[in-house]
């Protein structure tokens, strides 16, 4: 991928000034869930395009785009081909994107040539984590190459039905460590708050596939939010709350404002984090109004789920730029996936691209052993090899921490290459990034002793 894909405007067309079709505000009003603060927008008719209402009183006052968002030439070519009747303003409307997610084989077959392996998976799939891909993210998928990295992460494969030893529906034992609805309290001063089970796009390796995708079971009623908040209030040791799910940014602004306001009223909650994949799968969600809202609740941090350099589009760059300009520190969390990002070259391109859009590479995760994930999991040595290929070969800001989230609820365990060679007398022997051994005076030390 060329650097210009995430740092230059050369591949970007300016925001459209097209008027949106009459009746659009009426449609958005129906989607508004201000009175249902924890429910994500729903759409039961994928690909249903809005029809202009000639009698609408709004026709005399056409509405300009609510989101001044650049559109890359790739995105514009995609929607002109597959959605020729919509405007660029609709393409940039995150509600439209969410309501037109690709959720089944007929939908997928519009964009890609479905392989036999993928077809078997789609026809056999049942239960949690059905397919779901935003139109924007579909524009990044190669329609022919089944090995395309972005395609493999969101299009089901029959490999998901092949069990392997040690796999579990809840490998991190989050349910066991949940003392209140939506709360996982594992570390002394931190709490994970699962505010929704809804996601923009379903990753095939999702640790919470037992939760994500079950849109018929409303596990996140407001009463559950209240119980979770009551638990946080009752435990003064909790100073750090991570909002996750599902994806918290699938919530309407009003819902987020309500939730963040409630958390900010708890004196011992010092800062809040939000885990999201929105800037990568639906960057149009990062509206100016959202960034203004989030800015009110500092200190607030965002952890962005990033998988591959091809996600670093002009749209993703603009989304991250808006968040960074609002003073929100951004960190990336990447899952190491076989055949997707498990090479030093790919990971180096990814971390360099992230720094270019002001995102600090934070964690590189070993893939969790959820059911049917063997085709995604690499040997742990691969992660150590990648870290060794980054450390010293590029800026330290670009080197994430490689961790294994220990099965059974052991928490995140960082792993690093072995740079300690041993000891010789009072000296500690260390190997640098180039494999050269150096001495460090360490009288009385025990590090390096067998």
Describe the structure.
- This protein has helices spanning 4-7, 24-31, 73-82, 88-91, 94-99, 105-109, 116-124, 135-138, 149-154, 222-233, 253-264, 278-281, 288-295, 314-325, 344-356, 380-390; strands at 12-13, 71-72, 183-184, 190-194, 240-244, 271-276, 300-305, 330-336, 360-366, 401-406, 411-415, 420-424, 427-431, 437-441.
- With 450 residues, it is an alpha/beta fold.
- Mean pLDDT is 84; it is low at 1-10 and 15-67.
- A nine-stranded mixed β-sheet has the order 3-4-5-6-7-8-9-10-11. Strands 12-13-14 form a three-stranded antiparallel β-sheet, with no helix packed on it. A two-stranded antiparallel ribbon has the order 1-2.
- The two termini are 46 Å apart.
- Strand 12 and strand 13 (427-431) form a beta hairpin.
- It is 28% helix and 15% strand.
- Among the domains are: 183-411, Aldolase class I (TIM Barrel, Alpha-Beta Barrel), CATH 3.20.20.70; 418-450, no CATH class.
- The protein contains 16 helices and 14 strands.
Search tags:
single chain; 450 residues; alpha/beta; 3-stranded antiparallel β-sheet; 14 strands; 15% strand
Rg of Cα set? 23 Å
Order of helices and strands: HEHEHHHHHHHEEHEHEHHEHEHEHEEEEE
- Write out the strand line-up for the largest beta sheet, numbering strands in chain order: 3-4-5-6-7-8-9-10-11
Q: Report helical residue fraction.
A: 25-40%
Query: How confident overall, as mean pLDDT?
Result: 84
Rough outline? globular
Please summarize the sheet with the most strands: 9 strands, mixed
- What distance separates the N and C termini? 46 Å
- Provide the CATH topology of the domain at 183-411: TIM Barrel
Number of strands: 14
Number of helices: 16
Q: Superfamily at the CATH H level of the domain at 183-411? A: Aldolase class I
Instruction: Determine the structural class based on helices, strands and strand pairing.
Output: alpha/beta
């Amino acid at each position: 991928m060329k650097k210009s894909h995430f740092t230059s405007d050369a591949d970007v067309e300016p925001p459209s000034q097209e008027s949106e079709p009459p009746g659009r505000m009426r449609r958005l009003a129906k989607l508004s869930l201000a009175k249902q603060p924890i429910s994500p927008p729903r759409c039961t008719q994928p690909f249903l395009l809005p029809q202009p209402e000639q009698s609408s009183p709004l026709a005399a006052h056409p509405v300009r785009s609510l989101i001044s968002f650049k559109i890359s030439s790739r995105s514009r070519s995609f929607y002109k081909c597959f959605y020729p009747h919509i405007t660029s303003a609709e393409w940039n409307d995150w509600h439209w994107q969410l309501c037109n997610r690709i959720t089944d084989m007929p939908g997928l077959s519009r964009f890609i040539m479905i392989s036999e392996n993928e077809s078997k998976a789609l026809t056999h799939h049942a239960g949690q984590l059905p397919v779901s891909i935003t139109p924007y993210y579909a524009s990044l998928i190669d329609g022919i190459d089944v090995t395309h990295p972005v395609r493999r992460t969101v299009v089901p494969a029959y490999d998901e039905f092949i069990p392997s030893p040690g796999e579990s529906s809840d490998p991190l034992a989050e349910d066991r460590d949940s003392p209140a609805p939506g709360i996982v309290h594992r570390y002394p001063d931190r709490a994970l708050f699962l505010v929704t089970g809804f996601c923009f796009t379903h990753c095939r390796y999702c640790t919470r596939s037992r939760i994500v995708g079950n849109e018929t079971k409303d596990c996140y009623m407001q009463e559950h939010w209240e119980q979770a908040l009551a638990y946080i209030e009752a435990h003064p040791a909790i100073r750090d709350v991570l909002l996750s799910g599902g994806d918290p940014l699938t919530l309407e602004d009003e819902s987020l404002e309500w939730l963040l306001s409630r958390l900010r009223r708890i004196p011992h909650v010092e800062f809040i984090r939000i885990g999201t994949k929105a800037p990568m799968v639906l960057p149009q969600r990062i509206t100016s109004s959202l960034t203004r809202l989030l800015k009110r609740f500092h200190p607030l941090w965002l952890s962005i789920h990033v998988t591959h350099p091809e996600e670093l589009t002009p749209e993703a760059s603009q989304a991250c730029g808006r968040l960074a300009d609002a003073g929100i520190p951004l960190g990336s969390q990447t899952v190491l996936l076989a055949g997707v990002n498990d090479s030093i070259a790919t990971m180096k391109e990814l971390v360099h691209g992230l720094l270019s859009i002001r995102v600090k590479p934070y964690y590189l995760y070993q893939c969790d052993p959820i059911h049917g994930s063997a085709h995604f999991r690499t040997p742990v040595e691969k992660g150590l090899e990648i870290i060794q290929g980054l450390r010293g070969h590029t800026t330290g800001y670009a080197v994430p921490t490689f961790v294994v989230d220990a099965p059974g609820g052991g928490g995140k365990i960082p792993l690093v290459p072995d740079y300690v060679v041993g000891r010789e007398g009072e000296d500690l022997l260390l190997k640098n990034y180039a494999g050269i051994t150096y001495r460090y005076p360490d009288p009385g030390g025990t590090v390096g002793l067998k």
